[in-house]
Amino acid sequence: MSAPDLPGDATARVITVSDRSHGGLRHDESGPLLAELLHGLGFAVDDVVVVPDELTEVEQALRAGVDAGRDLVVTTGGTGFAPRDVTPEATRRVLDREAPGLAEALRQFNRDKVPTTILSRAVAGTAGSSVVVNLPGSPSGVRDGVVVLEPVIGHAIVQLRGGDH
């Protein structure tokens, strides 16, 4: 699979937000899977960054991806209702503009099969020249998220780079 309209030099950074993975208590499955799936769409993908569920650390990791000029910066994890789930709050600190339609599409995809998808507090938008997207922390949520991104992410990146409307 490859994303339509994706520029040949498109780059991505994956950030796993998980106290347990950061602390070495759990193997990170969703971050490496997400990196693999994005590579399959045509992205050059950095090594996965793993940070704890800490507002400032998530924000710093997001800003590092944006400052590095990555076309796409995607998080996995930290979007639920748990007290330490702070990924959306950290992401809003970084975003210049939100893309609520993208966040809603991610929540609605597969909703009949997985009703809890609508509990996600994930956000999406742009920061500098990057598209920033929050995905759930589960491998299945990552797979579903990439299915939603595949047909539109290339067009979004072309637009953000100043290309055709």
Rg over C-alpha atoms, rounded to the nearest angstrom: 14 Å
Number of domains: 1
Please report the number of helical segments: 7
Oligomer: single chain
What portion of the residues fall into strands of 2 or more residues? Answer: 15-25%
Structural class call reads alpha/beta
CATH topology: Molybdenum Cofactor Biosythetic Enzyme, Chain A
Q: What's the count of strands?
A: 7
CATH homologous group name: MoaB/Mog-like domain
CATH architecture, please? 3-Layer(aba) Sandwich
Poorly predicted sequence stretches spanning 5 or more consecutive residues: none
Residues in helices, as a percent range:
25-40%
Strand/helix succession = EHHEEHEHEHEEHH
Question: What separation lies between the terminal Cα atoms?
Answer: 24 Å
Instruction: Write down the CATH class.
Output: Alpha Beta
Mean pLDDT: 96
Question: Describe the biggest sheet?
Answer: 7 strands, mixed
What does this structure look like?
The protein has 165 residues and is of the alpha/beta class. The chain has a single domain (11-160), classed as MoaB/Mog-like domain (Molybdenum Cofactor Biosythetic Enzyme, Chain A, 3-Layer(aba) Sandwich). Helix 2 runs parallel beside helix 6 and helix 3 crosses helix 4. The model has no long low-confidence stretch (mean pLDDT 96). It has 7 helices and 7 strands. A hairpin with a 2-residue loop joins strand 6 (124-127) and strand 7. Strands 1, 2, 3, 4, 5, 6 and 7 form a 7-stranded mixed beta sheet that branches.
